[in-house]
Amino acid sequence: MRVRNIRIGIKSVEESLNEFRDYWKKIENGEKVEKKEALYFESISALRSVLTTKRIELLKAIAKYKPKSIYELSKIVNRDLKNVNEDVKILSELGLLELKKSKTDKERIKPIIEYDRIMIEIDLDEKIAQ
């Protein structure tokens, strides 16, 4: 597995739109744009509501045990399959894991993580919302 880091940070919607606008201008001008693998939230509370302790536990279990199915993952973490399914779906939609269908005796969905580290970045120079 190649080493890949995912950066997670806090950015306002305005800041994200400005960054997008800058990238778009560079693309229009034919400039090379560096690809960034990052996920940004509008606030720390938004980040906490998505990256819960249970979901981080799932990411760690997938990385360590490489389960062959979501059912197997639910057994590893000793959680209800329905809840694990919901959390895995959210993590997949965020791009923090990949879901791969495999067909053996039954169709299974295998959660896959292709990175080694998640880095959370908080800019201390950013203005504080009042």
Structure description:
There is one protein chain. The protein starts with a strand and ends in a 9-residue tail after the last strand. The protein has a three-stranded parallel beta sheet with strand order 2-1-5. A two-stranded antiparallel ribbon has the order 3-4. Helix 4 (70-77) packs across helix 5. It has 130 residues and is an alpha/beta fold. It is globular. The chain is built from five helices and five strands. It has one domain (5-121): Arc Repressor Mutant, subunit A (Orthogonal Bundle).
Q: What descriptive keywords fit this protein?
A:
130 residues, 5 helices, Arc Repressor Mutant, subunit A, 44% helix
Structure described in brief:
With 130 residues, the protein is α/β, with parallel strands linked by helices. Helices cover 44% and strands 21% of the residues. A three-stranded parallel β-sheet has the order 2-1-5.
